[in-house]
UniProtKB/TrEMBL annotation:
<dbReference type="InterPro" id="IPR036388">
    <property type="entry name" value="WH-like_DNA-bd_sf"/>
</dbReference>
<protein>
    <submittedName>
        <fullName>Lrp/AsnC family leucine-responsive transcriptional regulator</fullName>
    </submittedName>
</protein>
<dbReference type="Pfam" id="PF01037">
    <property type="entry name" value="AsnC_trans_reg"/>
</dbReference>
<dbReference type="Pfam" id="PF13412">
    <property type="entry name" value="HTH_24"/>
</dbReference>
<dbReference type="InterPro" id="IPR036390">
    <property type="entry name" value="WH_DNA-bd_sf"/>
</dbReference>
<dbReference type="GO" id="GO:0043200">
    <property type="term" value="P:response to amino acid"/>
</dbReference>
<dbReference type="InterPro" id="IPR019887">
    <property type="entry name" value="Tscrpt_reg_AsnC/Lrp_C"/>
</dbReference>
<dbReference type="GO" id="GO:0005829">
    <property type="term" value="C:cytosol"/>
</dbReference>
<keyword id="KW-0238">DNA-binding</keyword>
<keyword id="KW-0804">Transcription</keyword>
<dbReference type="InterPro" id="IPR019888">
    <property type="entry name" value="Tscrpt_reg_AsnC-like"/>
</dbReference>
<feature type="domain" description="HTH asnC-type">
    <location>
        <begin position="2"/>
        <end position="63"/>
    </location>
</feature>
<dbReference type="GO" id="GO:0043565">
    <property type="term" value="F:sequence-specific DNA binding"/>
</dbReference>
<dbReference type="InterPro" id="IPR000485">
    <property type="entry name" value="AsnC-type_HTH_dom"/>
</dbReference>
<dbReference type="InterPro" id="IPR011008">
    <property type="entry name" value="Dimeric_a/b-barrel"/>
</dbReference>
<keyword id="KW-0805">Transcription regulation</keyword>
Amino acid sequence: MLDHTDMGILRELSKNSRITMKELGEKVHLTGQAAAARVAKLEDNGIIERYTIEVDQPQLGCLIHAWINIYTKITHHQPYLSFIETQENYVLNNYKISGDSCYLLECRFPSNEVLDQFLTDLNKHVNYKLSIVINKL
């Protein structure tokens, strides 16, 4: 079970995973050495799985942020999944979900033309419903 300090460590690492252990310790009222030991324990217990970065997609030229609900045509989903694996330049996340659709794709595209081609190719495997993000609040 995680205590208040562990939750604080996770919150701070989620904001900045490059923070020094000394800075982390100061934020959660521990020494740097104690903070490092807590982080190591969280890693060993599988609570912290990996460290990553958040990329500013518009800075990379991917201005179109799309969410796509996927409706499969058949019960065999492998053709769709294989297609998605080839689209790593555009697909940020592919979630298997419950509800009306089978999957939910989070994607980024540099232009409407690229999005249109992606949807044309996607439609060979599944039906879809597209939503475009207007603004992140």
